[in-house]
Amino acid sequence: MGEIVRRLDIEGLSPIDNLVIQANNHSRDENTNDTFEKRRALGAGSSMSESARKANVDRSGEENRRVRIRTATQEDAPTIAILGADIQEMHHRSRPDWFKPADAQESAALYEELLANPSVSTFIAEDGAEALGFVLVKVHHRAETPLNCAQVVVDIDQIGVTPSARGRGVGHELMVSVRDLANQVSADRILLTTWEFNTDAHRFFESEGLTTEMRRMSMSWPRPE
After folding, report:
1. What is the pLDDT confidence band of residue 15, given thresholds at 50, 70 and 90?
2. What are the pLDDT digits (tens) for 16-59?
3. How far apart are CA 41 and CA 169, in angstroms?
């Protein structure tokens, strides 16, 4: 599979591909363009307006800086581990019963193993030598059964943008790379799992076109008296 590379003007997002989350859905709604315009204004999980984002860029003197999205390799495992530490720490704060504290050095080996898996694709957002975010996805080929249809599923396992880079459209461009991958593998669906406490992520995913289609429920056991 060829490397996917995208560049993004920080002053304004690049044109948004007219794609939908279910790759085999050929219908096009009249409101699609309006919806994607709203997504472009939202950026990566931020409600900051386009004019406000441009003002921030102008004040920082970074008008000519560019963000590059590239396919990660095993050598990027330590970098992804550092980026993933922000996500891990946020999850640990909210659910310490489920998630361990962030340890980028220990998790680097896990990411190296994931990057060696041919069913895993990972994209990194960079501004020069600075890593701004990443997305790690798994492609599942689900066979037909007497109960379920055969499907090719692109599963977003992890996605995150560093706090200093949020509101610049980096998360959106990472999602564009996910949609490009879905087209390459002729996927039927893009999906992900998100925790209830992560409301900022919910808003971002909804701005990218994802909707809630099932609920996972649990209880601690044994239950306290």
Report:
1. very low
2. 332 333 333 333 343 434 443 444 443 444 334 444 444 343 33
3. 9
Cut 0.90: pTM above it: no
User: b or e along 154-167 (b: 16 or more beta carbons within 10 Å of the residue's beta carbon)?
Assistant: bbbebbbbbeebbb
| CATH number, domain 25-207 | 3.40.630.30
**Distance between CA atoms of residues 188 and 186, nearest Å:** 7
Contact 197, 95 (CB under 8 A): yes
- Within 10 A of 78 (CB to CB), how many other CB atoms are there? 15
Residue that wins the pLDDT comparison between 156 and 29: 156
Instruction: For the chain, give every domain's residue range.
Output: 25-207
Label residue 61 left, alpha or beta by phi (over 0 means left) and psi (-120 to 50 means alpha): left
Contact 45, 166 (CB under 8 A): yes
Side chain identity at residue 14, one-letter code: S
- The position carrying tokens 């039927």 is 188
Q: Tokens 């990660």 — which residue? A: 72
Give me the pLDDT at residue 40, please. 43
